[in-house]
User: Which sequence fits this backbone?
């Protein structure tokens, strides 16, 4: 690692070289992405377009007697009387499913309800027929915890770190220019420039994207010549948490699902598809006395991504959602609900299996 004359004071640099050469225990260390995950799960629903767009007809059941029907109705009425709020939640709320959901302060205990009717997205209502219709807009829907003194940081410094972590999410997954395929300059500026493995990844990802160096692991990008977003709203659900990490660092974890409605770039296109991306990013706000880092930046500890309808072919550095008959391409592996946030990211990806292009239950 070479010295950066414009950013690290001479005294600090000389102390680092002296301590590192002497093998001192307290010598600042150059961080690495210790648990970087580069596995993607790109899933599309097999079958005809109607099924891919969330509608899955219920199986017809025969042989049900009138006695059984009466018993079922009685039990249902009892449940409604005892738990009216919970029952309303199963069907999207008592106002037709339009009640906005609060930000996710903790992991939900069940997946969102399946829509009761076929509701295809339109240009006017791109989230129609999706649980995301009740989610919040952008970063306003991502829960940010209360700051408290942690590790080497004071309460005020933790609050600043949480705010900058949120800024990174916005700059990497919501910025209008980045979504159109531009380089995520603001997001990259928040990454520790001395973290060599991450800088190598970034360099390769935008020069020659591939499976191991895919910019979509961290950033949401669409090729503007192929697709365009519908409107300027991205629906989100997720939360940010933090704890004390290694060497007293403040380790911030963001687990967020983003829903992007898109149409083909051609003029007059009106078929709306959705790309659903769930990312877990772990950011380490390191103590500069123990880690070589620039002020206002963080080191990446790990990053994982799970994508539905983002493309199943070789990586191009852009999401490539499918439309029309292209949606009939069969996936493989077990069926997974991309809106289910009741399991951890690790469990969610294990459920999806090891297939490169799995199967989503809805879009």
Assistant:
């Amino acid at each position: 690692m070479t010295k950066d004359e414009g950013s690290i004071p001479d005294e600090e640099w000389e102390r680092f070289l002296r301590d590192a050469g002497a093998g001192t225990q307290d010598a600042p260390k150059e961080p690495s992405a210790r648990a970087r995950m580069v596995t993607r799960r790109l899933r599309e629903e097999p079958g005809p377009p109607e099924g891919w767009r969330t509608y899955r007809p219920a199986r017809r059941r025969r042989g049900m007697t009138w006695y059984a029907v009466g018993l079922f109705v009685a039990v249902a009425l009892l449940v409604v009387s005892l738990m009216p709020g919970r029952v309303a939640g199963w069907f999207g709320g008592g106002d037709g499913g339009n009640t906005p959901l609060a930000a996710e302060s903790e992991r939900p205990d069940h997946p969102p309800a399946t829509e009761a009717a076929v509701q295809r997205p339109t240009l006017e209502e791109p989230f129609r027929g999706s649980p995301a219709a009740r989610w919040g807009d952008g970063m306003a829907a991502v829960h940010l915890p209360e700051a408290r003194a942690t590790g080497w940081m004071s309460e005020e410094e933790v609050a600043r770190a949480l705010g900058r972590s949120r800024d990174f999410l916005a700059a990497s997954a919501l910025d209008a220019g980045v979504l159109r395929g531009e380089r995520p300059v603001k997001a990259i500026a928040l990454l520790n420039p001395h973290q060599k493995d991450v800088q190598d990844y970034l360099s390769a990802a935008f020069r020659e994207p591939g499976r191991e160096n895919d910019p979509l692991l961290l950033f949401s990008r669409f090729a503007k010549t192929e697709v365009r977003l519908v409107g300027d709203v991205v629906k989100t659900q997720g939360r940010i948490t933090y704890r004390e990490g290694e060497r007293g660092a403040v380790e911030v974890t963001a687990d967020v699902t983003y829903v992007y409605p898109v149409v083909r770039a051609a003029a007059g296109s009106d078929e709306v598809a959705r790309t659903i991306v769930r990312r877990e990013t772990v950011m380490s706000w390191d103590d500069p006395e123990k880690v070589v880092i620039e002020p206002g930046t963080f080191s990446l500890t790990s990053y994982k991504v799970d994508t539905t309808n983002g493309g199943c072919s070789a990586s191009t550095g852009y999401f490539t959602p499918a439309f029309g008959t292209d949606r009939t391409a069969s996936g493989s592996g077990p069926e997974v609900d991309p809106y289910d946030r009741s399991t951890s990211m690790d469990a969610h990806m294990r459920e999806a299996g090891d297939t490169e292009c799995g199967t989503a239950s809805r879009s």
Residues 31-360 form one domain.
